[in-house]
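User: Hey, my collaborator sent me this sequence without any context and asked if I could get a structure. I don't really work with proteins. Can you help?
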Amino acid sequence: MTVTDEQAEWFAATFAALTDNVERAVLGKRHVVELAFTAMVSQGHLLLEDVPGTGKTSLARALAQTIKGTNTRIQFTPDLLPGDVTGITVFDQSKGSFEFHAGPVFANVVLADEINRASPKTQSSLLEVMEEGSVTVDGVTRQAGSPFMVVATQNPVEQAGTYPLPEAQLDRFMMRTSLGYPDHGATLQILDAGRPAKVTVPQIAELQTVAAMSGLAREAHTSPLILDYIARIVDATRSATQVRLGVSVRGALALARGCRAWALAHGRTYVTPDDVKTLAEPVLAHRLILDPEAEFDGVTQTAVIGQILLDTAPPSQQDLR
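Assistant: No problem. I've predicted the 3D structure and written it out in structure-token form, which is a compact way to encode the shape of the chain:
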């Protein structure tokens, strides 16, 4: 199916309305909100990594409130068990049979707050549902919400009582981004005595709307030249001297999916090299494992992706449609 100009216009208008709605709760961070909704309509998951008090939880909550679906919040702590996330099977004495009590992961948007505070065993309870959209307990597979998205937050600065996410789980997140501190103007609005401390945004999108946007996002035209550009960027991450382990195939697929959604969000039916450049860092950087010597020298994942983008020639704008 070819996406028409009218469909691209509807997608862009709906995307802008969703972004405007969430910006009521998270002021001055439009680009981050756009990245979050790009992950949502691309059927991916989002990792928000930032210092405390920058609005990570507020953003995740506003995303969940915006769509008319179910949303849950899991506060990850060291004593949280896998069954507290996925649910458990309990014997009902009155009925004489076992019943499944669904965990908070059965929702459309799941906020995994401070995910790095839980033990690796509990963190791994999300692996299946993030990849397959289903949970298997006692040999029975049950579908989670549809659409389904995990929005996880973590504080990268504080290390006491935390468990770093393993690479296999980081790879499940389509994007990693951070909010950072608001600018001066946004800070003044936040400090305004008339603004509530906890902003609740209205639900403005049906689940069917999100599903329709996801369907269109899969169909945006991606030229073979763009696919070749993405493949060359991914290949470069695997051969970079500062990198011990480069981007996986899952990461390359995530970048292609995200670029299609990003193009439609900006009213285009086709992907451009600028779309790839915009999404390369949030989609690819967290998937890199740097060489220990490079880390010691202060090299960052973001810097590696930035250098690769400079060194990799993009295709010309001709024939992209």
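In plain terms: The chain has a mean pLDDT of 87. You can pass these tokens on to your collaborator as they are.
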